[in-house]
Amino acid sequence: MDYNKSNSFSSTTIKKGVEKEIKNVKKLRGKKSKNLKLIIETTIVGVLLLLISWALLRLTFYDFNGYTANKKNDEHTSGTYFGSDQRNKEIKGVSNKFKTGAEVYFSTYVKEPFNQKDVTLTLLNKYGEIESTQMKVKVPVKPESNYVYGVLDQKSDGKSSLEEGEYIFRVTNGNNILSEGEFSVVKNN
Question: What are the transmembrane regions (predicted)?
């Protein structure tokens, strides 16, 4: 048998064929691992975008939810109240003094319906006679509603980032103040 002919089988020809096949397998494995890596990275990015979207929607529609039913219009319910909890559209643990890190919930009732599609919620720091805006956000409400509620300045971990100090919370309709309330945050000992 002549090993130098191209149609002959030799250990050199077989060895070269095997080496070529090994290289092809390695290339395929490399492509598969790259594809798998790409799929994993894409999935992670998708999940992160979904979580960010969920957090933004939660902030928009949960914390400052103005779509509520009318409350009884009488002198006893009008005003802005603050509390440490909220269940069934009602403030629990009503107070005007909170410890740092504690969530501060609010509810505002006005005698007349809002008669517009949104109101502005403003949180002000109070330094004696000086007021400084910390937060100002326009929230949607039903025109026939007279009640808005939510939680003030909540971090993603569920704790408040409100620092020690005096605060004013206002609900306005254009330049008209519909309701206003004051509370303070004290150092957590």
Answer: 36-57
Single out the residue of 93, 124, 96 nearest to residue 186, CA to CA: 96
Pairing of strands 97-99, 176-186: parallel
In sequence order, the β-bridge partners of residue 171 are 121, 179
Higher-scoring residue by pLDDT: 62, 164 = 164
Three-state DSSP at 78 gives coil
Look at the block and give the residue holding tokens 């060895």.
15
Q: At 11, which amino acid appears? A: S
Does pTM surpass 0.70? Answer: no
Type of residue found at 37: K
Looking at this protein, which amino acid is placed at residue 30? G
Are 125 and 132 spatial neighbours (Cβ–Cβ below 8 Å)? yes
